[in-house]
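Dataset card, provenance and construction

Sequences and ligand SMILES were collected as paired inputs. For each pair, a complete structure of the chain with the small molecule in place was predicted and serialized as structure tokens. The example below shows a pair involving zinc ion. Curators did not alter the output after generation; any descriptive sentences attached to a record were derived from the structure itself.
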Amino acid sequence: MRDRIEEQGGRIDVFDTIVRSGVPLLFRPLDGLLGVFINEPMPGVLVTTKRSLSIQRFTGAHELGHFTLGHDPSLDDESILRRMPYRAAPDDKQQEFEADAFATEFMLPPWLFATHFVRQGWTAAAMADPITTYQLSLRVGASYEATCRSLMRHGVEAIDRRTLDNLLRVQPKQIKQTLLGDYEPPDWWRDVWLLTEKDEGTIIEGSRSDLFVLKLTEHSGSGYVWTFDELDDAGFAVVRDEREGPVGNSVGGHTTRSITACSESAQEGWLTLAERRPWIPDGMPLTEFCVHYDLNGPEVEGLSQAERRLLLEAA
Ligand SMILES: [Zn+2]
């Protein structure tokens, strides 16, 4: 898994790990609970369908912790999200603190952050910017808050207590508003990915209603423009199209093309965009931008997608 992530980006596959550990995993619309771990007569995990993908993933990792650490059965509610692992645990909550610590270490190991830092050219100091930290959280598949806390726990330089407090004072909705400008989405639950040339060739793993702000350098001075017909063909709707720049005041310079697109359904595939001279539609593109997207989240009732994939492979 580490090799794959270092090559293509992405996140730790929590549900695939549970299934490959031989633990039955089912998604159900649970009332008042995020997840359940049982160990008699055999181990098993339930995760709710009623929450976002990042919460489902953390819950799965927490239940995997119960299994791996040989814990007693557990009914887990919202408190698994609010607990601060690594604090001294009260005696009756010992195994819950352990499962939370396991979940964080498993889903957000230091090498995963390092991989994304290198690819994106992010420095530790860049993490003081909530927009950057939010973009990191999407790529590692964790909530904004869990990502902020993990950065500090891993001792990332520049994330001290004060920086963490500043980051946590910002609500994800404010970050999304900044990214979307004057475009107002139907709701503020959906995530907003900022995609740039740095994401070329990577996998984007999100949810069916996610929004994408693509910012690509356009060599408009030389007559090249990005075309976005491929977005329509792939089932994305373009909701905003702007140009920023030119950078500097040189004639023939570059602009930044900024496109906002939304996904309308669960889908998976490759998207390739090209920068061409519009009067030579079949000419060689100057630049291409290609990403692999998997927007099947959140998990729906039944088996995980990881398990369905495994069953298909075995068939
Ligand atoms: Zn638990």
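Derived descriptions for this record:
The two ends are 23 Å apart (CA to CA).
The chain has a mean pLDDT of 92.
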